Amino acid sequence: MTTLNHPRSVAPRSVRPAEAATLLGICRDTVYVLMRSGQLRSVKAGRARLIPLAAIDEFLSAGEEFAA
Description:
- This protein is of the alpha+beta class.
- It contains three helices and three strands.
- It has helices spanning 17-24, 28-37, 53-67; strands at 14-15, 43-45, 48-52.
- Helix 1 (17-24) packs across helix 2.
- The radius of gyration is 15 Å and the shape is globular.
- The termini are far apart.
């Protein structure tokens, strides 16, 4: 029996800027400002801009360093 007919649920490893904004509790425009400044890492996939979930974690961790 093949498993090709039964798609697996795969957790996303990246999100689009609007989704990142929701996760961070900020507006989408601020996400683009953070990406342009290099504070939030992103990758380009065709015309889409994707933000790895690890990059969001890194951004939040860097903020904790400044707050301490």
